[in-house]
Request: fold
Amino acid sequence: MRTHSLYPVTVLVLALAGCQPSAGTGTASASPAPVAAADADLLARGEYLVRVAGCNDCHTPGYGEAQGQVDQAQWLVGSRLGFHGPWGTTYPTNLRLRMQALTEAQWLEYSANLRTRPIMPDFAVRDMAEDDRRAIYRFVHSLGPAGQPAPDALPPGRTPPAPYFGLVLPPLPGAGE
Ligand code: HEC
Reply:
């Protein structure tokens, strides 16, 4: 059992040595493996975040109806199911196409300051740690482009074609009396 407890210490020493090539310890060959592992971790984390943070709920057609059993090839292609309210009608963007049009650096800047119309929870994306936003980019970008752009948003006061979710709010106090 004691031999097991030595293992993490050995790994730590190797990792530190790998960070300091100038120390002349000859461990240059140790660095590619952690980098590859980090890439795989980011992809897996991105897939996980997209699945549990709700992105598929709106951006992937039929995701809720299928209880999440939608092939990844169909994920995040945007939706023709509109969200209609006082802001007009918005359609979940095709993120597969959007991510291809952005570099990772552009996405990190853009997502940190994301401002959209409802019903997109842009605040949730802004609040994500940079590494989580990076993970989402890596994963969605790795899926490649797919699908067509979502319909353009409609201005307030226009009734959209079906299908759409409609948000009906109570009249403003004092209005219409
Ligand atoms: C409740 C539905 C909903 C959820 C959940 C949701 N989105 Fe959206 N998203 C939308 C809608 C609708 C738009 C279009 C907003 C507009 O037209 O202003 C949008 C737009 C966006 C945009 C802007 C695209 C562009 O450049 O025009 C990004 C980026 C985005 N969503 C990413 C995400 C990510 C990442 C998640 C998961 C963390 C997510 N969305 C979850 C509905 C949603």
Notes: Residues 1-28 have pLDDT under 50 and may be disordered. The first helix runs from residue 2 to 19. The chain has seven helices and three strands.
